[in-house]
Fold these 3 entries.
Entry 1:
Amino acid sequence: MSEINNGGHFQYFVNKADFDHREVITALQNLGANQCAVILESALRMVEFLLPLTFPQAAERYLEAQEEVQLSEFDDAFYKSGDGEIMRRLEDYLAAHEASFIEWTT
């Protein structure tokens, strides 16, 4: 979420090229952040089709690759609702499993 907020889906895919993105999509689905999962899966399909997931060695190549892929539609969709969806789902999960994360002392 923070990677996408900082630099969009392209930056996320470049910086997290070694991540199992399918696992992230499944985690979003399990959390109930289905809209975010759909957005990420669609962006991933485009990236896999157009560009290998590797870190460009030069800034110029990074900018060129970013232009080639054009993930701004996914960024816009995420900014409109995805960020809020993830936060709501994480808050719901914390509320349901609070004892797993917080030990209250008196």
Entry 2:
Amino acid sequence: MGTADLDLLLDVAPRYDRDDDDFGWLQAALDAAGFTRIEQSGGWRWLITIEGKAVVVEFMCDVPDSQGLTILLPGAPQVAALNFAGPAPALLDAVEIQLNRGPSSPAVRVRFAGLGGYLLAKATAVVSRGLDKDFYDFVFVILNNDSGGPTQAGQDAASALPQNPTHDYTETIRQAVTFFGDVSAQGVAAFVREMQAAGDSTPPDILAQDAVAALGMFYDAYVQGP
């Protein structure tokens, strides 16, 4: 259950005045690891096969100019980043988690997006892309987070709003929630389908009711603030 994505957030800072940046190291790393560019993407999606499994790396950024377009990275002629509103809160709202790798390996601390930042970013995907997996991820995390469920998720999302936002994240949240207004709504239907495909045996009408109730609690808490 849950998302099949592993989202790695790297602060490589493609700014508006980015001509002096040099992302040659990123191009070299992709080439050395054996990734191949997915040509249809324009350079923001790269593919490698590991133990028979396809692994796709997608580069995204959140800068004020060129919304919805790919931005070529200076010094890396084959690599681009897809620019859209959303990743910035995930970068700013970060938590460190200790991963224990086994008795013979030292533990490491890894930086992950916090719950609020993740949901602000995922809401952008719900509104702008609207894939079934986006609807599913959004509801699943709101329902099953470790922070306390939908109400705490809404409070965390409100707390994760950037102090000087370049986009109206609250409007994005509002639009995302409209996809879950009742049991027949597009987002709810997608969530139910994905849960059933993952093997969940809960009756579909219960899954739908859970999604609607969770999104209502989430949004009420978000509007009230932290």
Entry 3:
Amino acid sequence: MSERYFVESPITTDRAVLAGAEAHHLIHVMRLKPGARVTLFDGSGSQFAAAVERVGRAEVELAILSQTQIDRELPLPVWLGVALPKGDRQKWLVEKAVELGVSRLLPLETARGVAQPMQQALERLRRTVIEASKQCGRNRLMEIALPQRWELFVHAADGMSRRLLAHPHGIQHTECAVAGGPRSVPDALKSGGVALAVGPEGGFTDDEVVVAQAAGWTPVALGPRILRVETAALALVARVTRGND
């Protein structure tokens, strides 16, 4: 695959312009010259073969050579609500969630949460989404939503066919077929999508679990060991999406 670049504006004509970080990478890191062939995507689901026409100081003009619709998404949406960890662990979590096909990541505001990302941090995470999408070949961007209080997120996911809450005392993964949990999630991916929730390092409070169960969420245990936030989130996503790529 040729070098991939994200174009923020929808590509609707036979020309495209790269600016910002993407232009900087092409000009100053890859040092591409006019005539070089690259692949572009704009988040619409298509990817475009393009040729560099003009390299400026801060912008690159390209000619669109062809458009191909390439779908690398899961059959239906997977939402991941997570109380974000601190520091670089946030970036790693977002990167891997993109690779696994998550469609929407919602930072959760919980009683024991330790990181409440501000707008600047959210913008950095959205940049991570672009970089991860370039690497893994996704042509649609995972959405990084605004932080949401736990009670609101629980009910915002009412339309999803499966709603699973990671909890050490939840139903074991091997028992979930009876409870409509992860082993039945492949069917959910074909009928209405899945919402997943992972709490902070200290876990969800008893009250938070009660709120979720009252709204139809199923607590699910991920094994006998206590996992860090990012590990639990990605383990849960991987289990419920297995076999659906």
